[in-house]
TrEMBL record:
Pfam entry (one): STAS
Organism of this sequence: Jacana jacana (Wattled jacana)
The organism's place on the tree of life at top rank: Eukaryota
SUPFAM superfamilies: SpoIIaa-like
Protein known as: Sulfate transporter
Catalytic reaction equation(s): oxalate(out) + 2 chloride(in) = oxalate(in) + 2 chloride(out); nitrate(in) + chloride(out) = nitrate(out) + chloride(in); iodide(in) + chloride(out) = iodide(out) + chloride(in); oxalate(in) + sulfate(out) = oxalate(out) + sulfate(in)
Keywords, sorted A to Z: Cell membrane, Glycoprotein, Membrane, Phosphoprotein, Transmembrane, Transmembrane helix, Transport
Length: 688
């Protein structure tokens, strides 16, 4: 007989007060630990093995920096902002994560999905403010300052609504929206870290994240097609943006710019070929080929000396200023307009960062702190928002490149930031003649990984049909409705799938494996023997209010006995017998004597005297679940059938005790509860 341990009662009030006193106390040692935990760089940098790590960090930092510059300029199209702001974002994110991050290998910076989400909010607010979303106006020829926007867009906004400066034009207002959105998202992430809400990421399953990324990739691809072929169409907003954009593309396909089409075709062929060769021979290459940088340099030179903008009206990036714009506090009034949009942005940014950090930590055998990662990515958004930057996250492609080029620590992030700084201070104006179609090609080719998920659908379907359905629903909603609603739809649908699975779980009658004390599903396995006079029922889910009816229906169906119907039939039969007796008939309707009647009250279909319920898969019971078991205990007892529970975990046993299933004094508990199915079966066989 196994005896439960007696639990020591804990005074929760005293425990909470002790924790509160401990957390509120301030000692030099505790303050030092707090600072070192908040800035992990203070722990690992003094132990940095320069001779062992420096070469790998420098190489990976240079490679990522070279990749980062063209990607930052390209992703500015997604965010609806000028390229200079993308460079600012990449610079500050690497520096701050170097100080606060716990992952050694993650590359934090500009990310296509985050840029898309920022761009959708920026476009919406610009449209509401009365600005023209068409960004294909001739670039300004002034000093290249970001404040020099095109004249048609300076006075189109009612300047008193959001409390902006009267001289603020379209570009100024756009970056104001982006920085306000980024600041609020960072505040959300820090608050989630303070209140330890990292568990929110658990509700984003792999299927939801993959579907969201694929759907967003389709949206990104659609938004870049107009740059590929050089047509001028309005930037669609709201739900169904993907469909509306494609309709506008086909309506205006006759206006395609031949120069942009030829340039795009050449760039895509070169980029895809280089990527495929790089993937095929990556084990022979010490670092990835900087194809994007080569394409950008060559395309810029061709565009500049061929005067493609002047001769063929090819759209170019325009002036990119050098240096840093003075910092500015994000506009408080704009924060209220984007507070709701910042929540999904904060969650997606955090989830991608933590999932990539955990992947790298598992691969290279070290640990990360998810809560600190939330603080790190939060401050990667809050602090840069004062320096005209927008939201950031960890990026899978750059992280994989970083690990493959010998990265050891986040020192590589500082090297990457220095490469970006070099461009910011000296090289940015050289990209003036770079065609936008080239940037669109870089973005589209970077989506190869996400778009290849379509090839995995058959394999995914073979592994798990429900997860495949979650992926399809999330992907479709993200692409056809909007990215934020697609993410919400994916989360809700995946949770509904879990609920449905527990509402209609597998149920089975078990048979005995011959010459053993083990029992399995007699529909799934051959050569199982049934136990005479005993039925063994398995329910593979928690028993709670949502699946109570299914539990009872399955039990009655598999045992071929509904105790309520049987009880009603008995009462009806007894009533008929009494009527026969009153008439003075010595025989019943069956032709039997009165003494023999009681033997025939129960029809022959009841071929068992004990029902064993295998509770090994029942993880918990709620009040409805306990009452359901009490109900079948009473109903079957009226038919002289005993109910025996087997393999209950301690949580289920405690719920049954509190619900009064075993009676007041638990005296009959040893005759109702068993630690194995075989023990319950043996007990049932020994019963008279």
């Amino acid at each position: 007989v196994m005896e439960r341990k007696t639990r020591v009662k804990i005074n929760k009030k005293e425990v909470m007060l002790a924790k509160l006193r401990k957390s509120c106390s301030c000692t030099p040692k505790k303050l030092k630990n707090f600072v070192m935990d908040f800035f992990p760089v203070l722990r690992w940098l003094p132990k940095y093995h320069c001779k062992e790590y420096i070469w790998g960090d420098v190489m990976s930092g240079l490679v990522i920096g070279i990749i980062l510059v063209p990607q930052a300029i390209a992703y500015s199209l997604l965010a609806g902002l000028k390229p200079i702001y993308s460079l600012y974002t990449s610079f500050f994110a690497n520096i701050i994560y170097f100080l606060m991050g716990t992952s050694r290998h993650v590359s934090v910076g500009i990310f296509s999905l985050i840029s898309l989400m920022v761009g959708q909010v920026v476009d919406r607010e610009l449209l509401l403010a009365g600005f023209d979303l068409n960004d294909d106006v001739p670039p300004a020829l002034g000093d290249g300052s970001p404040q020099n926007d095109s004249q048609p867009n300076i006075t189109a906004f009612n300047l008193t609504i959001a409390g902006m400066n009267a001289e603020c034009g379209k570009e100024c207002y756009a970056i104001g929206i982006a920085t306000a959105l980024t600041f609020v998202a960072g505040v959300y992430q820090v608050l989630m870290g303070i209140f330890r809400l990292g568990f929110v990421s658990m509700y984003l399953s792999e299927s939801v994240l993959d579907g969201f990324a694929t759907g967003a990739s389709l949206t990104i691809l659609t938004a870049q097609v107009k740059y590929l072929i050089g047509i001028k169409i309005p930037r669609s907003q709201g739900h169904g943006m993907l469909v509306i954009t494609w309709i506008n593309i086909f309506r205006n396909i006759s206006q395609a710019n031949l120069c942009d089409v030829i340039t795009s075709a050449i760039c895509i062929v070169v980029l895809v070929t280089a990527k495929e060769l790089g993937d095929r021979y990556k084990h022979k290459l010490k670092f990835p080929l900087p194809t994007e940088l080569v394409v950008i340099v060559v395309a810029t030179l061709v565009s500049h000396y061929g005067k493609l903008n002047e001769v063929y009206s090819s759209s170019v990036s325009g002036a990119i200023p050098t240096g840093f714009i003075p910092p500015r506090v994000p506009h408080f009034n704009l924060m209220f307009r984007v507070a709701v949009d910042a929540l999904p942005l904060a969650i997606v940014s955090f989830v991608f960062t933590v999932s990539l950090s955990e992947m790298c930590a598992k691969k290279y055998a070290y640990t990360i702190r998810a809560n600190q990662e939330m603080f790190a990515v939060g401050f990667c958004n809050i602090i840069p928002s004062f320096f005209h930057s927008f939201a950031t996250s960890a990026a899978l492609a750059k992280t994989l490149v970083k690990t493959s080029t010998g990265c050891q620590t986040q020192v590589s992030g500082v090297i990457s930031a220095m490469v970006v700084l070099l461009v910011l201070l000296f090289l940015a104006p050289l990209f003036y003649s770079l065609q936008k179609c080239v940037l669109a090609c870089i973005i589209i080719v970077s989506l190869r990984g996400a778009l290849r998920k379509f090839r995995d659908v058959p394999a995914r379907y073979h592994v798990n049909k429900v997860d495949t359905l979650v992926w399809v629903i999330t992907m479709s909603a993200s692409a056809l409705i909007s990215t934020e609603i697609g993410l919400l739809v994916g989360i809700v649908f995946s949770m509904l799938c879990i609920i449905v699975r527990t509402q209609r779980p597998r149920t089975a009658l078990l048979g005995q494996i011959q010459n053993t004390s083990f029992y399995e599903d007699d529909l799934e396995y051959e050569n199982l023997s049934s136990v005479p006079k005993v039925k063994i029922f398995r329910f593979e889910a928690p028993l709670y209010y949502a699946n109570r009816n299914y539990f009872l229906k399955s039990l009655y169906r598999l045992t071929d006995l509904d105790p309520n119907l049987e009880a009603a039939r008995r009462k009806k039969y007894e009533k008929k017998e009494k009527q026969h007796l009153k008439k003075g008939d010595c025989t019943t309707a069956n032709g039997l004597g009165i003494g023999e009647t009681t033997l025939q009250l129960v029809p022959k279909q009841i071929d068992f005297q004990a029902l064993v319920v295998d509770c090994s898969s029942i993880s918990f019971l709620d009040t409805t679940g306990v009452n359901t078991l009490k109900e079948i205990l009473k109903d079957y007892k009226d038919l002289n059938i005993s109910i025996l529970l087997a393999c209950c975990n301690p949580s289920v046993i405690d719920s049954l005790k509190r619900g009064g299933y075993f009676g007041k004094d638990f005296g009959s508990m040893q005759e109702m509860l068993f630690y194995s199915i075989h023990n319950a079966v043996q007990f049932a066989k020994d019963q008279k």
